[in-house]
Amino acid sequence: MKDLISVIGARWPAGKRPLAFPRGFRGLALALGIAACVTVPPAAYSAAQWARERALTELGETAQARLTLYSATLTAELEKFRALPLALAWDPDVTALLAKPRDLELIDRVDRKLSALNAGVSLSALYVMGRDGVTLASSNWTDETSFIGRNFSFRPYFQDALDGKVGRYFALGTTSQIPGYYIAYPVWGPVWAENHTLGVVVAKVAMDALETTWKGMGGERVFVTDRHGIVFITNVPDWRFRTLRPLSADARQELRDSQQYHNAELRPLPALDSAMVRTARIPDTEWDVHVALDSRPAGDRALSAALSAGIATLLLLAAGLVVLQRRMALAERLEYQRRSGLMLERRVTERTAELSSANARLTEEVAERERAEREVLRARDELIQAAKLAALGQMAAGIVHEVNQPVSAIRSYAENARLLLDRGRLDLVRSNLGEIAELTERMAQITRQLKTFARKSSGILTPVSPRSVVEHALGLLGAQTNDLGAEIVFELPEKAPPVLADEARLEQVLVNLLRNALDAVSARNHRLITISLGEDEEHVLLSVRDTGPGIDEDDLPRLFDPFFTTKEVGEGLGLGLSISYGIVQGFGGRISAANHPDGGAVFTVTLRRAPEPAEARPFSA
């Protein structure tokens, strides 16, 4: 203190008296010391509390942002492989294998197909299970830990898929001892089969790649728990298969029955006292994602703030003695605030950039998916239109023959009319002109039918008369029917209920079914085709039956598969029934095939009834 006083006195202007402190200077110094003891601790405590709360708030925002990112990566990983087992569930070879589980050639073919698919997507395993839970084919069929012949009927994912639902389950493999996420889809059999579900297709997704990615994303600890609080995915290996809370006896019994975690010890998770934990639920699951960030830096910031506040308070108390020290203390405080602000802005900018990048990636994925869906719809419409034009080409010879007859008759009537006109027989000329007019109308009717059939569909579902559609289809096939000498029995009421469909596409379905029926009876002595109509409260059933040889029972399940045909080579591509199946499904209906008890085949198109138009009501002011 004496040194400080001497410095101040030395700065006093020349010729003036040096600074002389009052006699009560010691009292003032004592008062300043007491004030420091009184004010510094509260100031330091308040600053520490504020700094702690601020640090915890920032840490919480960081944890929430990281939690959103980890949840998005986990959801993307779960959804990435969802389509593969769904596509396999509709694969003809898989369906055939489940129908004939002892066919060694089918087993080998499906094994190799699963192995090739798995090599492209790097799953843990792809396998097919029968209704009894026994694995019939697997991508790891050559490994020592192959699933072939293993029975996994005790797994919940198999039971869910067998009930017609999508099975989702995470478990430790009882055979491979490798944990993974299981996605199971049912394989449907024919609708008339007694057991509609033939078996199950399962994809096992390993999570080690995701955990490796999480290890490199940040210093925080991440873990995922199931509904029992058991950690099964984490970037901390020692935490795997630890529990957040004690397991009840019922939970332990359930885990033993399903062998979800096999022989794992399921010990309690270490205490997280020095960590800030944020939790979020993964949609459509019973899983929780947890992010744990170290909260000790918040304590360090609080201590630093307390020390800074104490020092600042002491400097303020000493400001009455030395102005220079006050200015230095003020500059130090402003610099500290500026650096804190810059640090906060930098962190906010970094977090905003990360979230913007994640949002841009999600937007791009959504746009790509929508573009793919539009391409699929466009390709389907072009395929339907191509099939329609191909059908017109196949019917061209018969249509030309039908048009050629009225053209020849018109020529004859015209030549006769010219001779009769020269002879003055006007009454006969008028009769010939009438015949020409009728033949011209007949040709116009054939042309209208062709234009209606060939035009592109609007894609809009409207009320359509099934009788009108059948009449147009028969008109297009009239020449082929007459050439074969086939008999058409028309069992439709005059006032058939309208159905909800696209008229052009429904006509295409009927033309395809009638052409198939004509082909079926072409080699028979009794050539009869019966078109009938049935109905209930919600549907209209349009049936086409022929007296042909019928359909082989082994071919019925594959009849509507693309490129499957029972005709000779060169007589068809096997797309007609497949396209018809897709068209009727687009109407919200269904199409099925069966053999009639009296012989021949019968195809049934089930369509929704069109809603009744609203009754007109009188207007009242």
Descriptive overview:
A hairpin with a 3-residue loop joins strand 13 and strand 14 (539-546). The longest helix is centred in the middle third of the chain and has 72 residues, at 323-394. Among the domains are: 83-122 and 124-205, 2-Layer Sandwich (Beta-Lactamase), CATH 3.30.450; 395-455; 457-608, Histidine kinase-like ATPase, C-terminal domain (Heat Shock Protein 90), CATH 3.30.565.10. With 621 residues, the chain is an alpha+beta fold. It has helices at residues 2-10, 25-80, 83-89, 92-99, 104-121, 156-162, 208-215, 249-258, 296-317, 323-394, 396-423, 426-454, 466-476, 478-484, 503-521, 576-586, and strands at 125-130, 135-138, 167-172, 179-188, 197-205, 221-225, 231-234, 275-281, 288-294, 462-464, 487-491, 499-501, 528-535, 539-546, 590-595, 601-608. Helix 2 runs antiparallel to helix 9 (296-317). 52% of the residues lie in helices and 16% in strands.
